[in-house]
Design brief:
- The chain is an alpha/beta fold and 289 residues long.
- It has a domain of 161 residues: NAD(P)-binding Rossmann-like Domain (Rossmann fold), CATH 3.40.50.720.
- Helices cover 46% and strands 16% of the residues.
- It has a seven-stranded parallel sheet with strand order 3-2-1-4-5-6-10, sandwiched between helices. Strands 7-9 form a two-stranded parallel sheet.
- The radius of gyration is 19 Å and the shape is globular.
- The structure holds NADP nicotinamide-adenine-dinucleotide phosphate.
- NADP nicotinamide-adenine-dinucleotide phosphate binds next to α1, β5 and β7.
Length: 289
Amino acid sequence: MLIVTGANGKLGRGVVEQLLQRIPAEQIGVSVRDVSQAQDLAERGVRVRHGDFASAESLLHAFEGASQVLLVSTGMLGDAGLRQHQTAINAAKKSGAGRVLYTSHMGSSSTSYFPPMVHHAATEDLLEASGMRHTSLRNGFYASSLVRLIGDAVHTGELIAPEDGPIAWTTHADLAQATAVILTEKNWDGPSPNLTASEAIDMEGVAAMVSDIVGRPIYRKVVTDEAYRAHLAAQGFPEMRLAITLGIFRASRNGDFAQTSSALADLIGRSPLTLRDDLKASLPLSDAL
Ligand SMILES: NC(=O)c1ccc[n+]([C@@H]2O[C@H](COP(=O)([O-])OP(=O)(O)OC[C@H]3O[C@@H](n4cnc5c(N)ncnc54)[C@H](OP(=O)(O)O)[C@@H]3O)[C@@H](O)[C@H]2O)c1
């Protein structure tokens, strides 16, 4: 049985939907914190069990009979987040699964300026130390994260951010499809190739793209890291969120997210969705000035 954690979240649910198109529902199990939210999956024949990375016992039950476990990273950083990932890896091992897969990120590195990359690198070390067969999915940056960085530029006409570098923005839909293919068809070990869309683009390019989509000029305005930090702090961003948001710019101008690869296209058998199409669908265009 293939077990997917985080199946009430965006990526995990997308993977389950893709798996349902490939293998019988009886061969899929989900480990979720709230089983009621996965009722629709249970009705379609998926095994739904409660599993929380904070509780080893719950995971052992949720992973019972696993051939492979897809661990969707929880988003909790720091020591507590790492302890949860260790608990999940231990449970996957105890369940007798032949392979564990983990949603890492392109640019995963212990020295990254972007805190989540340090966390992914540390989790990859835990996977290596587990002695289990494992695949670390080096996912591209979610295009949905860019919408948050664009913020109210659609309304103000100014895309204000620190100096940056290109990022290969990639959609959840494509990553979910690729993950299902890897789970069912690829015996990859260790870090995957970068799973990215076909182009990397910087904020200057994003401003031009958004301008084109909304039909009005959006100007890219570069500010210092300090000015941006003060701007975010004034909005009440806590320290960790400040470090994460500023880290995107510092790491991207270091070139950490610039490399594209054809691996995602090869897995899904078509060109990945473009950032332009994703932004057209997700930007708040109706109330643009
Ligand atoms: N590649 C990128 O650019 C990028 C960007 C942001 C985040 N990420 C990472 O990718 C992950 C998946 O992305 P997503 O968009 O699917 O996020 P999401 O919709 O927030 O889903 C995260 C899932 O993790 C589950 N989770 C959180 N804490 C847990 C715990 N203690 N035990 C078990 N499950 C737990 C959540 O469960 P509930 O449904 O019960 O809340 C949720 O289903 C994120 O969690 C984050 O680590 C990647």
